[in-house]
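Q: Could you fold this chain for me?
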Amino acid sequence: MKEMELLIYAILSVQNDSGELDSMLTGIKGISGAGLYPVSFQTVTAIASDINRTELIANSSNAIAYAGVIETLAQYFTLLPMRSGSMMESTGDILRMFERNHPEIEKNLLNLQNKVEFGLKVFCDSEKLKEELIGKSEAKTARLIPQTPDPQISVFREYVNKKLEAHKLKEMLLSHVDSVITRITAHLDHLNAVSKFRIMGSETMIIDAVILLGKSLKDPLIH
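A: Sure. Below is the predicted structure, expressed as structure tokens.
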């Protein structure tokens, strides 16, 4: 039978609240109803549970349980949420990770103090969006200009035209995405938010962003 491994939910900044944390963890259950426990190193603590890797199935039940642990802890502690499925083999591995990276982890936690993190994803049908952008540009007119057939270079010309058109469409799409980001950041600037954007993560997800701002500004951001 395969031995249990450790699933890590979050890393917390814990100074003098270890008693409060221990008490809180007794009332929280992780994936598959597993109990949670802290693994501490100096000023930082990982929240983990024992789990068999076969139990770590990517389904809605596990996703809700994982997010629920993080959401509950975030109400009381400054934390770095771990990516779902973050595993280590033993508490010793966690402690060695902390020993190697403690200054950086502590710095990141300090930056998050009294702040809240939001994820922002923008989805669309990129093919339909391309069609709309073409309709608003000179590209559509340029494509309709008749070409005089030339049997000597028609195949090459067709290949080049397709490449140029694909490049033009990509540039138009990226320009449009940049304009959307500009509008978003204009609003975020009023909230003194820190944001990081990743574009075109897939054909349907054109923007994937992380937004960090003060807890008191949560409502203005949502509304």
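A (continued): Residues 154-189 form the longest helix (36 residues).
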